[in-house]
Structure formats: structure tokens, C-alpha cells
Amino acid sequence: MQKFVAVKLVDKRSRPYRGFAVDIWSAGVVLYVMVTGLMPYDDRYPKKMLLKQLQHRITFPSKRTLSDEVKRLIFEMLHPVPSKRKQYPDIIKCSWLVNTAYRMRIEERLSPPSTDSSDD
Is the pLDDT of residue 65 over 70? Predict the structure, then answer.
């Protein structure tokens, strides 16, 4: 569970839950998992994992071809300091997300799902 929990919730010195900033951090973890198939801070030792989070050490697997745009978005969403973390209005405007949504709309127009039935 700690793998999806924002640093501020695990760090004993931090303030209580602050809503969106914590949710954005968790969404950054989910995005990382979706594009890589791995956890961003995977370590069997929770203290080492927390240290990686606090030091903002994020690596991306070399076997995956990821755009610099998505790497930057994830990096900014996973910033350990909530005030420096990417905010929702900026996330929905980021070039990776906008370009991905645009490509998906184009692909939908070019190749709609088949409605043919093979049972006819």
C-alpha cells in the first residue's frame, strides 16, 4: 500500500492530508505504472523506498520507449514537495496528454470498431 501513498502521508513530520496534492502524487504513481508496467519506487525495504521518494529519484526502464513529455509529467506529479508538484489545471494542458487525446480522436475517426457479425 505504501507504494501508492504520497510521501506527505508517510512522513511523520508532515501535516495532515491535503487533498489534491496528495491525489496528484498518487495519480502520478498510477500513470507511471500504466506506461511502464512497474512501480516507480519499488523496494522491498520501506525505508529505502521512502528515501527514494523524498530524494525525488525516479528512473524509467530503458526497455520502454517513453516520450520526454510523459517522463517530465510523471516527474512533476511525483515531486515530494506538494507546493512544487504539478497542479491539475497544468496536468490537463500538458502536451503529452493533449497530443495523446488528439491522436486517439484521429484514430477513432479513421478506424471505427467493426459492427460485422461473423454469425450471419
Answer: yes
